[in-house]
Specification:
It is a single chain. The protein has 320 residues and is α/β, with parallel strands linked by helices. The protein has one domain: TIM Barrel, CATH 3.20.20.100. It is built from twelve helices and ten strands. It has an eight-stranded parallel barrel, surrounded by four helices. Helix 1 packs across helix 2. It starts with a strand and ends with a helix. The protein binds NADPH dihydro-nicotinamide-adenine-dinucleotide phosphate. The site of NADPH dihydro-nicotinamide-adenine-dinucleotide phosphate (NDP) has 29 residues, from strand 10 and helix 11.
Length: 320
Amino acid sequence: MLYRRLGKSGLQLSALSFGAWVTFGKQVGRTQARELLALAHDRGVNFFDNAEIYNHGVAEQVMGDVLADLRFPRDSYCVSSKVFFGAVDKPLPTQRGLSRKHVMEACTQALQRLRVDYLDLYFCHRADPDTPIEETVAAMDTLIRQGKVLYWGTSEWPVEAIHEAHRIARENHLYAPVMEQPEYNLLHRERVEVEYAPLYEAYGMGTTIWSPLASGLLSGKYNDGVPADSRLTQPGYEWLRESALSKERIGKVRALQPVADELGTSLAQLAIAWCLLNPHVSTVMLGASRLEQLEHNLGALDVLPKLDEAMCQRIAQAVA
Ligand code: NDP
């Protein structure tokens, strides 16, 4: 495993990490989750990502039970949660958003579900137009001073809101966001490469990037239709199916296949390794509904040295 610093912080995360969205508590029960987390940890993965909204808190319960059962030393891994969408179906106004009330309560609840004393990383899952940024920054600072959170960050915030959070933190001597959690993959590059570019230099922010396979699309599995047991057939994720699948996107995935063939690798490993070429990516968060997928995707590290300048140009042309 490779390890990378989370931006300018001293925290070293595994270059490949593992998240629970859609899978834990839905496609993946406790037995399978145990196998997945055990394999990941055994291969040096030291960051497990979660959120209050994932399967309405059940993903965190499953992860918490399994982590307790596996008895990994607490100092051998990092675990995250994210606050904003709420953990219950149809949340009341006090049960969602980034108010001090919800941020504090959501953290307490995540700690209980994950069965840990502190969250290593805690993210504001989206920006909240109904809460002053001052209130959220102060709440995160409180959680850090209470020892309940070690590093806080944002996820998919507009760049101006992140600048504002840093200004507030600097002027009030509060802890500032250390990392962003954006989508980044061969089909979705703009925000990480262009919009967020000033953040890396100005504040030394790191990124924990999500959907390296664009929900599986970049494995090529959707090239000839939607497999019955795949993510895009899951009830409740019809919106994802609509946004993920298009002729244009499938065309780009097809165009990448000859490049992967030439490298002697799979589309999935190529797509994951490509994310790691960006030095501002601190960790690529993998998703997997099966053990074989995780095993295969961890092999992306072997592809990284093969991605020279010429290969990168061919990849860029394929998805242009
Ligand atoms: P991916 O884009 O890698 O999609 C993972 C899914 O693709 C798997 O669950 C599986 O689905 C399929 N898959 C994975 N590997 C293979 C393979 N080798 N061959 C074929 N199919 C494969 O990542 P995610 O979208 O899951 O994102 C990773 C993590 O990022 C999440 O778990 C979550 O922690 C985080 N995240 C954060 C978000 C945010 O807003 N902050 C939003 C989304 C994710 P299938 O069931 O079809 O087999």
